[in-house]
């Protein structure tokens, strides 16, 4: 039984180096085994994480009516089917089980503040407060978002090496993806709460997810069914997992592993970055994984693949929202 996640260190993994090939091979193995690994040596400065945590925490500490002013009216930025959320969402507003199409299960004890690619445009109208604190939060989340974009670009190059694909394969498939970043605050477990569910068991719909955390809380269900609680040696290390999109693309050779968050003795913050694909990207079994075995899935355009899940989460169609 696995106790900890595989660890990948990128310190010497410069493009073209032997260390890069080794890291690609280790990532490949981790994705087949558990679909999760921890990441160090990635080059994001500790201060970038700490700014994002500190300013998010200051935001969440405000009274509810101040936080409620930082919501998008529609909940979304553009058309009704554009599910890039921006701004605040409160405790028990979302339900990770519903996202999985499972009805009647408890909602999540977590507060979130979300941004997407529009954060890179300083002129974009986004639901931050206009005071100095609001603008500092915006700058901190922008800085972290940009680091996440750069790092996932590097990680997807490692995937392309592992998968015998051209180095720029994923860059082309993700050039206009509606990636998002969510800053999360989980409350301390207390007798006022009806359960210890920070986030119900789910898989991510993503290509990749990168998670930073201030302390343990996420639990990963390994293939045997037992739960691993990963710990990080340092607050600037990351937990990376692949999502349903990568699982499907790899003919399920890579696993999109269920995970959940359990509340405990202290408050916990996390930063979750979700890397997606272009709406028109064709998701068709990587040649490496359908040489000897037939492709399990029909080719699908990413937009069609993702809408089904998002409709369930946001209560469109019959999946409902708890
Ligand atoms: O906050 C965490 O630790 C996990 C969040 C997560 O799994 C998600 O948002 O999909
Ligand atoms: Fe998740």
Automatic annotation (TrEMBL):
Keywords: Ethylene biosynthesis, Iron, Metal-binding, Oxidoreductase. Its EC number is 1.13.12.19, 1.14.20.7. It holds the Pfam family DIOX_N. Pathway: Alkene biosynthesis; ethylene biosynthesis via 2-oxoglutarate. The keyword Manganese does not apply. It catalyses: 2-oxoglutarate + O2 + 2 H(+) = ethene + 3 CO2 + H2O; L-arginine + 2-oxoglutarate + O2 = guanidine + L-glutamate 5-semialdehyde + succinate + CO2. InterPro entries: DIOX_N (IPR026992), IPNS-like_FE2OG_OXY (IPR044861), IPNS-like_sf (IPR027443), Iron_ascorbate_oxido_reductase (IPR050231), Oxoglu/Fe-dep_dioxygenase_dom (IPR005123). This is 2-oxoglutarate-dependent ethylene/succinate-forming enzyme. It comes from Corallococcus carmarthensis. PROSITE patterns: FE2OG_OXY (PS51471). Residues 177-277 form the Fe2OG dioxygenase domain. It comes from the Bacteria. GO terms for biological process: ethylene biosynthetic process. Belongs to the iron/ascorbate-dependent oxidoreductase family. GO terms for molecular function: 2-oxoglutarate oxygenase/decarboxylase (ethylene-forming) activity; metal ion binding. Coiled coil: none annotated.
